[in-house]
Amino acid sequence: MSNPFNAPLDSLPYYDRDLDAPDQQHLRPAINSLIAVELRSLLPKTPNAPPTNLTHLPASRPLPSSPFLAAELARVESKKPTPPGQGLDTTRYAMPAPKGEAADDVEAWEAAHRSSLAQLEHQRLRTMNGTLLQGTLGANKWKVQNFAMENTVERVDKEGEELRKVVEDVNRRRKGDQEKGGETLSRLEKKWTELVSGNMQLEIGCMAMEAEVAQLQQQHAELTARLAATA
Amino acid sequence: MRIIVKGGVWKNTEDEILKAAISKYGKNQWARISSLLVRKTPKQCKARWMEWLDPAIKKTEWSKEEDEKLLHLAKLMPTQWRTIAPIVGRTANQCLERYQKLLDEAEQAENDELGLAGVDDAGPSADDVRRLRPGEVDPDPENRPARPDPIDMDEDEKEMLSEARARLANTQGKKAKRKARERALEEARRLAILQKKRELKAAGILMRAKPKKGGMDYMADIPFEKQPAPGFYDTTEEQAKRYAAPLGKNLRQLEGQKRKQDIEEDDRRKKQKQKKDNKDADAMSHFIPSKDSLIQQQKEAQQISKRRRLVLPSAQVGEAELEEIVKIGQAGENARAMVDDNGNEASQGLLGEYSALGHAKDARTPRTAPQHDNVMAEARNIRNLSMQQTPLLGEENTPMHELVGRTGFEGATPRGSVAATPNPLATPLHSNTSDVSATPMSVSGRPGATPLRTPMRDSLSINDDSVSSFGETPRQERHRLHDLKSQLKQGFMSLPAPTNNFELVLPEDDEEAGDDEISQAMRIEDASEREAKLKALREAEEQKALARRTQVVKRGLPRPVDFDAAAFISQLTAAKDEPELVEEPSRKEAERLVAIEMVKLLEHDAISYPVAGGKRAGGGSSSLPFIEDERLAEARAAVHAEMAEAVGLPGASDAVLKRAIAMDVEEFNKIWRPKYEELAYDAQTKTMVPVSTLSDEERIAGLAARLDINRERMSKESAKAAKVEKKLGIVLGGYMARAKTLGGKLTEGYEDLARSRIELESFARLATNEEGAMARRTESLKDEVDKLERKEREGQARFRELMEMKELLSSQIEEMTMEEAERLNEAALAQMDE
């Protein structure tokens, strides 16, 4: 009950047709603007910003703790650039010869040579894969993939359709319930208005009668007095 | 008014109409039938059918038998034509006409005989006598053939024809038509109601039949149904089963498939029909056999079935006789052929020309004996009987013609037999018998022979019948037989000794096979065969050549791209200058020889199977001497044996040996890797040399050179890979595009799903909320209403109270005023009294 979504709402949209009345049409834009204002307060300002009004939801789970992840998160939070030597090693995409002081180091040269061999092997694999794909293998693989995809799409569509049906059922039930309850409500309301007007009339009648009675009483009193006088 | 006199000549159209009408109405409703024919009465129609149209009526010429029968019967039952007719097999009219005609002919013949007719004036012939004169009306036109239709028919005739056609084509009567119409109307009404119901149902209005009040719903209940008492077994499963009523199905469909036989029958019929349709397609297109022609066909078929079997006299030369003749003929031929082949003149004489038919071959059927014209004689007799004056007047008795074995008053049918065809095979020897036509019989059958058997005829007269088979005395007979026997024995003795020549017939296949063997040698080899043979040889040679390659080439191991034999040898020999080798000159020599051999082999491979990218062009011939396959195999076996010996598995097979020597990859790497690490590339000599021999600078230079090489290769390879990938993009682009669209759809679907879920959640929550709201509202409203009601009740009570009070008061006041008035009156009276 603490959050706005759990507050009891007194709305029966299928029964309360006051807004649809022709003399109430001017209210609708005003209501829409009100709704928009409230929604704006509910939804986050930007898509990335954390939502403010979702306190009713469970707290977010913490990320799995790992020293690398923690370090990386800390780095991102402090908005520092990636230190050199970390992240992606771009030298693996080229074959640079050792430079500067490393130019005289045999080890550096060896490393460069090994890297070049590895890249060549990778290139060979790439070519081989491409050649293999050129035959029926690639086409088949794509076909299988597309087939699976089609199936998935179909399944998802079907599920969506079913869900929509359920939603419709819910709405239909709501409408039915409200209309049924609405009848009782209108009956009661009618009775209420009748009773109110009847009571009003009754009261007026009573008042009139009271005045009359008072008058008669007065007359009665006068007469008794007069009779007493004459007697 | 035009008066139509019915009758007259029958026309073809009328005949046809009549036939069709009879096929429709039968042979009893002549009035109805005649209503179709304007100019004919029912009687005439009937007469026409009975006398002419009925297919049972014979219109062929009168046969001799029929004539005989007719005359005979006419004599027995004079003028009773209706009785005679069925016996003769013609109509009464036909009989009468024929009778008169026969008499006319007889008369004419008599006149001719007597020379009554003049020379020129031949007098009217028999036909002429009965012919109609001009102006005469045919008394019975029913017996005449129909007059053919003119090309331009009269209007009224055409009208009649069309009307008849219309009436006859009408297959249903009035009542049936009316019923059909009513049925159709009913059906239409039912359909309309159905349609209406359906539409109403579609519109949401359900029209259920009102339930019958006080009656029984036969669709739902079963009258007088009595549930069987629960039995021993559990039948809930069977009861749960629902049986759909088999509506709109016939029994066969219910039973399942058609019987196989039926299917086959259907297929066959269909096929036949198709064939027929194909054949008659154009013919059928403009010719549809009308109903009456079909009927006619059926009638004819009936007629044919009624026809009696053709009864012919039994053959004069029987089956058995014919067989015998054939046998004799064949035996004679065979014997003759055998004797002719042998060329034995002695036996040739024994055989005569043994043709069984003999002279009967060229015999002609002899003429039947002249016969008496009984019919004419009879006719004359009858005529005489009718012409002659009664003998009572004293004249001569009627002269009657003598009839040979013919009619009399003995029986209902005339006597007489059919003349048989004379038998040309009849032996002339027996011509002494009176009847030529009769087959000769050996009346005097020999003892032992079947009596009444046709004798054997032979030109050698072995079975000569003319020789009296019975001798004068039994003793003579015995003598004769004995003689015959001894003669025969002598004849047999003079026969040549049997040669026992067997003719063996071999199957034809063997003969052909023998032919084949001979011809095969003679035959010129077919070009294609030779080519095939050469090709096989070539292939075998190629296989051998492939097997002859070195192991390096066979297994596709790496080979030097550029091979310099001299450099290689120097390198090898330099490497062999090791101390242990120097001590043993013989081993050194051996090593040297091996090295030279190896170089030779390498060179051979480089020339014969050039390496891709090498400088040497292919197609050269190496200097390596050719080694025979056997020697190679021997060498290999020797190596194998030695190796097996070394491993300790003498006599092991190749596979076992390989397994014994083989080394797994890791082990190999363990040994090979350190050795390889010891080597480094030398850029100057472009060789791999031990690391220790190189300085750091040199090593760096070598590595740089190799890096450069790798870079070049990289650029080449990457270009190739990029090309391949580009091509892949083209080849698989369609699939990719499809995958992309599918991905898009999937995302959309998921988004949709998520939205729907949110909606569902929201609406469900809203629903519970609304339930609460509804309850609350109703509750509060009810409270208010209760309150108001209470208030009203109170108001009412108060009102009533006031009302009562008011009444009470007003009555009191009235009383009081009355009293006052009285008092005033009294006062006034008192005043007046005073």
UniProtKB/TrEMBL annotation, chain A:
Compartments where located: Nucleus
Region (Disordered): 46-65, 76-96
UniProt keywords, alphabetically: Coiled coil, mRNA processing, mRNA splicing, Nucleus, Spliceosome
GO biological process: mRNA processing; RNA splicing
Main location: nucleus
InterPro entries recorded: SPF27
The keyword Nucleus belongs to this UniProt entry's keyword annotation: yes
Recorded GO CC terms: catalytic step 2 spliceosome; precatalytic spliceosome; Prp19 complex
Pfam assignment, any one: BCAS2
Coiled coil: 199-226
Family: Belongs to the SPF27 family.
Name of the protein in its database record: Pre-mRNA-splicing factor SPF27
Species: Leucosporidium creatinivorum
UniProtKB/TrEMBL annotation, chain B:
Domain called Myb-like: residue spans: 2-53, 54-103
GO molecular function, one term: DNA binding
Pfam families in alphabetical order: Myb_Cef, Myb_DNA-bind_6
A cellular component term, taken from the record's GO annotations: Prp19 complex
Ranges of compositional bias, category Basic and acidic residues: 127-150, 255-283
Regions annotated as coiled coil: 778-819
InterPro entries: CDC5L/Cef1, Cdc5p/Cef1_C, Homeodomain-like_sf, Myb_dom, SANT/Myb, SANT_CDC5L_II
Keyword flag Magnesium: no
Alphabetic keyword roster: Coiled coil, DNA-binding, mRNA processing, mRNA splicing, Nucleus, Repeat, Spliceosome
Protein origin, superkingdom: Eukaryota
Compositionally skewed regions (Polar residues) per UniProt: 429-442, 460-471
Single biological process term from Gene Ontology: mRNA splicing, via spliceosome
Family assignment from sequence similarity: Belongs to the CEF1 family.
Name of the protein described by the UniProt record: Pre-mRNA-splicing factor CEF1
Native source organism of the sequence: Leucosporidium creatinivorum
